[in-house]
Amino acid sequence: MLERRLKNGNPIVRAMHSPTNDQLLLKSSAIDEKYYLNLRDLEFFTKIGSGQFGSVQMGILKKVDHESCVSGTMVAIKSNQVSRNRTELEMLEEEVKMLASMKPHPNILPLIGTVINDIRRSGMLYIVTPLAKYRDLRTFLISKKPSPHNYENIGKCEKDKLMNADDVTLTKSDLTVFGLQLADGMEFLARVPCVHRDLACRNILVTENKTIQIGDFGLAKKFNEKYCYKTQKGIYLPRPEKWMPLESINNDIFTEKSDVYSFGICLFEIFSFGKTPYPEVCGGRIASYLENGGRNEKPKYCTDIEYALMLKCWMNAPEDRPTFHECLQFFQELTSNSVGFLFYCVIATMFIFQLIAEDEKSS
């Protein structure tokens, strides 16, 4: 039975062969019983999103004695869209095991609990996480526009001071700190070690004080740091190719460096306020486009130094890309000097408003 397998740490579907050096399989581990919830502990409300392997509903945690939340806490409840769908259940199982196995980090979506005891009756598995105030980062970016106000705070690099949840617009400093937080969260995952495999702004949530949290771990895998994770032949996985490097598109190879490539695409999304990468290229032609040297253009609201980091992340050879530790250092150094960061943000933000004014005149 699926719920028994999940409690015992066994995968839903066992691999047909043993892992090799170039093809490592995720070793299952039991989930701590503190994460077990019953369906009666939840009250379901509106559907707020859906993806290839699940849908998300807004809800309330009614359980009074849960250690991480109080009764009445608003939560997001992710479940398979089709009852007893084997692929969807596998993806959700991988996600809940991954979240349950990781230590807390401010930029990683935490797990509140999971409902697995309803699988036998209804064929449904539920993952419960905190409800993000501003939903996903891409939607948030698209809905916001730069603002010239709050110059007096724009140079403070501390997340809790720089990010003001009452702001209804984004400044240049907000974009930079999004990059800092994302690098921080991914550097943490790289030390697990864990490869995310689906890093994109649509899978990053924006919470209170504009803190971002990396989510959607359905494709994530733990792996031996000496090797890479290579998908098994014959197993279908979604392919967000515009966020994938060549080694992943052509050979299904995923490492920290493939996540670094996706991180660079996320930076493009952030500094373009949610623009789709490679808008002129059809998804099936992205590999040849990259092989011929094609890259995203510099985002309009991006400085040269930030674009230089993106270009490094998009190098075709994985060994030429930076590590997440180096990406984190880049943003830490950029924001560490409050006076320098203030000057950088003021100049960059003034440049943004000049571009906006020019766009308004041309339209």
UniProtKB/TrEMBL annotation:
InterPro entries: Kinase-like_dom_sf, Prot_kinase_dom, Protein_kinase_ATP_BS, RTK, Ser-Thr/Tyr_kinase_cat_dom, Tyr_kinase_AS, Tyr_kinase_cat_dom. SUPFAM superfamilies: Protein kinase-like (PK-like). SMART domains: TyrKc. It is found in: Cell membrane. Its main location: membrane. The keyword Translocase does not apply. Residues 42-335 form the Protein kinase domain. The active site is at 198 (proton acceptor). One of its GO terms (molecular function) is metal ion binding. It is a single-pass membrane protein. This is receptor protein-tyrosine kinase. It comes from Caenorhabditis latens.
